[in-house]
């Protein structure tokens, strides 16, 4: 028999599955303002999704018209938006790369398409990954954005197995809009904001327990400072 906590979780998942944008405005924002009033006393300081960038590097293979065309069609199926071709900004003779040479494809999702893609990613795509152990917290950058890679395109429901000539992955960058006040504008604050938002959005973060032994983020900062100091000391001795 399900307990109350399980029923609440199921209700949250169904709300997110129905409409993430609506649930964020009507459910997540009021809860954050009520339960974390010291952090989010102003609704504009609550972190929110800004855009999702999906890209794939093709390298020299992008010069093959058929390969490039097939990748463009595949990305359009996956994201629901026509991708753009990424080009080299400068020539690199060692890698046989010319200036303005086609090297990959990229899609930037905003608005409804962004939320649609995120819903598919959270509730359908991750479930297709074999031996999936969750996403790492260490994939947050200093700006509080989150980047991770997927090894193959077959986990997306739009991709047919028979149509795939070569297994290729992609990189997904989730950009957040923080709007934090100046006294909470450090990297650790932005990462904390991202962790809080991802928890409410049901992101499968796997190593949250790594930080349970610390009482505060100030202690985590001190620990990482010690590690950086030890690394510098070791490098100086080599």
TrEMBL record:
Domain Large ribosomal subunit protein uL5 C-terminal: residue ranges = 103-182
Citing just one GO molecular function, the answer is: structural constituent of ribosome
Q: Where in the cell is it found?
A: Plastid, Chloroplast
Q: Is this entry keyworded RNA-binding? A: yes
Q: Which UniProt keywords apply?
A: Chloroplast, Plastid, Ribonucleoprotein, Ribosomal protein, RNA-binding, rRNA-binding
Q: Any idea what this protein is called?
A: Large ribosomal subunit protein uL5c
Q: Identify the main location.
A: plastid
Q: What does the UniProt function comment say about this protein? A: Binds 5S rRNA, forms part of the central protuberance of the 50S subunit.
Known PANTHER family for this protein?
60S RIBOSOMAL PROTEIN L11-RELATED
- Quaternary structure? Part of the 50S ribosomal subunit; contacts the 5S rRNA.
rRNA-binding as a keyword of this entry, yes or no, is: yes
Task: Write down any Gene Ontology CC term.
Answer: chloroplast
User: Top-down, what is the taxonomic lineage of the species of origin?
Assistant: Eukaryota, Sar, Stramenopiles, Ochrophyta, Bacillariophyta
Q: Enumerate the Gene Ontology biological process terms.
A: translation
Domain Large ribosomal subunit protein uL5 N-terminal, first and last residues per copy: 42-98
Q: Which family does it belong to?
A: Belongs to the universal ribosomal protein uL5 family.
